Amino acid sequence: MKYLFIINDAPYGTEKAYNAFRLAMTMQKDFPDNEVRIFLMADAAFCALQNQNTPSGYYNIERMLKSIINKGGQVKICGTCADARGIKNLPLIEGAQISTMAELTAWTIESDKVITF
User: Which domain holds residue 61?
Assistant: First the structure.
C-alpha cells in the first residue's frame, strides 16, 4: 500500500511532526513492503532544513527524516510554503526536495491512505 503523510505544523513546539514521523518510521519497520511519502506544508517546511541542533535527549526531526529517507521514504516540501517562509534556497536534508501542489495532487490520487497531521 501507498501511504501519504501531509504535515502542516512546525518541527518543534507541537509534537505533530514528531508523531507523524514516529508513525512513518514504525510503518517502515513493521511493514517494509509499504510505500511512505511525506509532504511538508506550511510551517512543516522547516522540518527539512539541515543542521538541526536539539538538546541531548530531545527528539531530532532531521534525524527522523533521514531515517525515513534512508529506508526508501520520499519527502517533498511545498515550494510556495518554503518561499513564503524565506527558506526555499536554504540547504535541505539530503533526499528532500522542493515540490508543487500538482505533485501533492498526484501523490494524493495515487495513495491508498492519506494521513494528515
Answer: 2-116
